[in-house]
Amino acid sequence: MCIRDREYPLSFAEAAAFLRELADTLVKGSRIEMEISQQQIQLAPDEPITLEITYREDPKKKKMEVELEIKEHFGSAGRGAGRPTLKPVE
Hints:
This protein is an alpha+beta fold. The protein is built from one helix and four strands; from the N terminus they run αββββ. The protein is globular and about 40 Å long.
């Protein structure tokens, strides 16, 4: 088993560009290929994927974590129960 974690400090534009590229890859049903910590990874994602949103607030800061878990299943996978919705800011 090989585990690689790495944090990338990004601007809003850089983060949005990465998420768009990932979204386009998922919609196409394409294999995900990227480099993490100088290691090439390849993943043929299956549905469903898991989206986890955590929000924490304390007197000094507010923090929202968004985790997207994409798996390559070896067997059948069930369907999820929908997705959260974003409200436009006015």
